[in-house]
Amino acid sequence: MTETAPSFPYTPLAPGEIRLLILGRGLSNDPVWCILVHRQLAKANYEALSYEWGMESKDDPDVIVNGRAVRIRKNLYEALKQIRQTDEERYLWVDALCIDQADLDEKGQQIGLMGDIFGSATCVIAWLGVARDDSDIAMEWMAKTNELEENLRRSAWDSPERKAIELLCYRSYWRRVWIIQELYLARTHVVRCGTKSISGDQFENSLPILNRFGSDWEKIFRNPADHHRLRRENRGDIPSGVKYNKLHAWLKMCIMAGFESSNERDVIYALLGISDDCQNGEIAVDYDKPLLDLYLETISIYPPAWRNFSPEKYLLPMARKMKLELDENLRRSIKEIVEDEGFKFADGETLEMN
Fold this sequence. Notes:
Distance between the termini: 61 Å
Order of helices and strands: EEEEEEHEHHHEHHHHEEHHHHHHHH
Number of helices: 16
């Protein structure tokens, strides 16, 4: 009988523990098999997989976990199939299998640790998906950083190579809100697409070269992949870190750049591990918490951050991402938290404080 990951019989975690997935050896057509084990996070040695879940489908494949057939999403299956090794097992942290998704208490606790999990991994594997749209060509060009600029100068603006690079940099992976934390905290990472692999340094070094061609290649300038490079570059810059490593700053970036999540609460939860003002339990990960309560709790962390901007610029788009009703109650609650008598909505209405 095939089980889905949520129905898999997980053993409860002890304090400080995480689960690791031991990915078995195999060749291309071999079944994918794994073993789940418990390890203390502080002592664990593993790689973390960063990937896009994708939509559930009736055609989703199975993997063998602890001797049981478990159904997983197709994108994860392709990732495990491609990154497994032929000569030895690989120790991985993979959220869909290493967290008991049916246990909301464990899920909240483990998601609260994700900053530590990705920051402690020996390497983060950024899985962009299977090869398509000439992605092999794009990966090969971007791997040759020393030749990239000259190759681009010799190519037409509508060449297949440029189109392949553009499509790679606009893959939906880069727009997933969880990716921000996973790449930002990575000590080192590798970018993987299909069978092709590039070191994180090579990939990030190629992105500024692409930006130099923005005048005649407008879409490539500050593409979604480049948002992650810019934030990673600022990690060691104290003034920038002070400015950007606040929850409100990450949220503003997500809204401006169009980041998405499949769960409305993850608009907030995915950013807690990299928000300096949320490291002491200011917002607890709770998937039973009403969306409106979470939204108001979030903007209450630092109300002055929102005062200099029209609500239509950040606060209301964030409410839409969380699928909240933009009614009078929401507007009045925003007004009370921000505590600014001149705070106006686009219709010109100024809500009076009672």
